Each structure stands twice: as C-alpha cells, then as structure tokens.
Amino acid sequence: MKLSYKILFSLILFITLGYLFFVPEYNVKGLFEKNNPNLVYFTSIHDIQKIGMVEENSLLLIDSQNLEFDISLSIPGDQYSFYVDIQNDNYFPVTVEILSSELDELSKKYLNYNVLSDKKVLESNDRMTVQVIVEFKPEITELPECDIVTHFNTQIVATQA
Questions:
Q1: Same domain, 63 and 102
Q2: DSSP E strands: which ranges in the chain?
Q3: Same domain for 62 and 15?
Q4: CA 150 from centroid of its chain's CA atoms
Q5: What is the mean pLDDT of residues 55-82?
Q6: Structure pTM?
Q7: Local structure of residue 37 (DSSP, 8 states)
Q8: What is the spatial distance between Cα 46 and Cα 63, in angstroms, rounded to a whole number?
C-alpha cells in the first residue's frame, strides 16, 4: 500500500513539474514590465535654442516622466526650443503620447506651445526625439503690459502597442 502512495505522489510531482516547464517565460516578464511605467522615460535635453530676448528661468528634468521649465518671453518673435530624448526599455513596443500643460488665457493669447514628434510607436529598446517649441506669436502687434512668464509641463504616457 505504501508503494502505491509513493508512485501516486511521484506521478503527481512529475506532472506538476512538467507543466511548469511548459509555461512561456514571456508571460511572466510581461506582467512585471507592463505595470512599470518607468521603463519609458526622458533621457536627455539637447540643442537648446533661444531667439530674441528669452530668459530661461529654469530647465529642470523633475523625474523621468515629467519635464518642467519656466521661461520669460518679452516681444513678438521670441522663441525658445529644445529637443528631448525618450527611451523605451520595455521588451515590447509602446505607443507614446506626450501630454502638455494647458496654457492660461493670457498665455494662449500671446504664445504658441508645441511638442513635435515624428513617431507614435516606440519599439523595444529604442529611443525617439521630440522637439519642444515655445514662441511669442510673431503676428502680435499689441504688447502685453509685462513679460509673459509661464510654467510649462510635459509628460509621457506610454501604453503597450
């Protein structure tokens, strides 16, 4: 009788271990990485350009998903632009959406704020570059009573493609 329990136990153990060897590894990886937004992040800022009387109050990479900066623009035609790289360290491609802060009414009247990208899907272990441009609208003929100082925030939202 003891021998049949040992055989039954060995058979159940063999079947269980055999099943575990056939579970695909990528399913387990996907569960961990899919829930980790920090695998798509800003990496560097480069090619900063100032046209006109632009004052850079700050350019700060707060964390890997949020980019914040403050600038002052004084006259029509003033422009501030830079490029920022975004890295995808996931094992799968992601769809990247760039969210930009909403300008207040005064800023909307005088400024253009654009975040430009040539890609929407970022492949696994790939990098893309986006351009951020803030411009005092050149067609404005009536100047504001003071410099326009605006706080800008840009965020990355990535979802599995």
A1: yes
A2: 40-51, 55-60, 66-73, 79-88, 94-100, 111-117, 121-122, 126-136, 148-160
A3: no
A4: 21
A5: 78
A6: 0.70
A7: G
A8: 17
**pLDDT in the model for residue 62:** 58
- Helices then strands, counting H and E runs in the chain, come out as 3, 9
Find, among 139, 132, 150, 153, the residue nearest to 75 by Cα.
Answer: 139
Least confident of 29-33, 65-69, 92-96, 147-151: 29-33
- Confidence category of residue 139, pLDDT binned at 50, 70, 90: very high
Task: Indicate the number of domains in the chain.
Answer: 2
- Hey, CA dihedral for 118, 123, 129, 131, is it positive or negative? positive
Q: Please indicate, yes or no, whether residues 19 and 67 belong to a single structural domain of this protein.
A: no
Domain, as residue range, for 23? 2-32
Tokens read off for 54:
């632009």
